[in-house]
Amino acid sequence: SNRSCYYLGDVITKDESLEELQIQLADKVCELLGHDIIPIVLGGGHEVARGSHLGVIKANQSDTTLTNLAIVNFDAHFDLRKSKVASSGTPFSQIEQDRRGQNLDFSYFVLGVSEPSNTQALFERAAELNCSYILDFDFDSITNHQFIEMVEPFDAIHLSIDLDVLQASVMPAVSAPASYGVTLFSLERLIRALLATKKVRLVELAELNPTYDIDNHGAKIASRLIHTIV
Fold it and tell me: pTM here?
């Protein structure tokens, strides 16, 4: 590949304010998007998604190719909880509010959803927001064509990968390992299909937790996914 890849360091704040971290991340993402660079954000908790997406919203003020955008989240969880305190369970609920505040549509696709790991209220919330989702046990049967048809109407894609979507035997390095999970083969296949559309403008890989890793196995899987993306 002729692509260049640069490491741009960490986002750090002295007072440990999550919102301050998200704003700093948003500024960096916005700057990179302004130079037509695809940011790859590494986490940490999935709350990084909100910071990433604030950068998209900011960049959209001068780049209207980001207006008609789909969020594609490979995740065992909807992450649509409503709470006054932000956490790794709230980012896409916050993003929906952020986009609505700017009169932007919220088009959210979640693939690999674990039914036992989401409450009935979250399924109802997803329905209320017209989210499209595919359950973990249906994941392997999605064809590339079906998947790409879902995102065909959109000009840009925010790709979010929560590593806990993978089977626990493949990805132990997460705080909520999947009892069922999706296969690495199918995840890579769909990521490659999505990248082939040339619509992906932002990527994040979230929830890697070295505390739970076994012989760096999870870290190696995460690095393989990044290699697939770049």
Answer: 0.95
